[in-house]
Amino acid sequence: MAISTDFTPTLAHWKKELNVTYPVLSDHMRKVSESYGILIKDLGVANRVTFVVDKDGKIAPGTIQVVHSLGLGLDEQAIKAVSQWRFKPGTKDGKPVAVQAAISVNFRLL
């Protein structure tokens, strides 16, 4: 399942375009983003990192981008963390393909 702050018609377009087989839900009211602590209220967007997962389930080199910078070295830490993750690759017509993904990286001060 995927959740995005995009509107439902936009998600429907991309789901069809990318032949996505899992549910894609809209959080255009930003309630889920806010409850998970990833909403940047002043900008009305969710804090996230985008990247491309290659057909082997690894993040393609050079594709990680911070969508909304937090500064204080947190952007670099988000990139470092995400670059170590592994994923089940996307599929199209039953074959593994590279797909773009976006994920929220949360930081909590302890």
* N- and C-termini, Cα separation: 30 Å
Question: How many beta strands in the DSSP annotation?
Answer: 9
Summarize the helix and strand pattern as letters.
EHEHEEEEHEEE
Number of domains: 2
Largest sheet: 3 strands, antiparallel
Outline the low-pLDDT stretches. none
| Strand order, sheet with most strands | 6-5-9
Helix % is 10-25%
Query: Strand share of the residues?
Result: 25-35%
H/I helix tally: 3
What is the 3D shape?
flat
Radius of gyration: 15 Å
Determine the structural class based on helices, strands and strand pairing.
alpha+beta
Q: What is the typical, i.e. mean, pLDDT?
A: 76
List the topology elements.
Blueprint: E1 2-4, H1 8-17, E2 24-26, H2 31-35, E3 39-40, E4 45-46, E5 49-53, E6 65-66, H3 74-82, E7 90-92, E8 95-97, E9 99-103
Parallel strand pairs: 1-2
Antiparallel strand pairs: 3-4, 5-6, 5-9, 7-8
How would you portray this structure in words?
Strand 3 and strand 4 (45-46) form a beta hairpin. The protein is flat. A three-stranded antiparallel β-sheet has the order 6-5-9, with helices on one face. Strands 1-2 form a two-stranded parallel sheet. 22% of the residues lie in helices and 25% in strands. With 110 residues, the chain is of the alpha+beta class. The chain folds into two domains: 1-46, no CATH class; 47-110, no CATH class. It has three helices and nine strands.
Q: Which tags fit this structure?
A:
110 residues; alpha+beta; 3 helices; 25% strand; flat
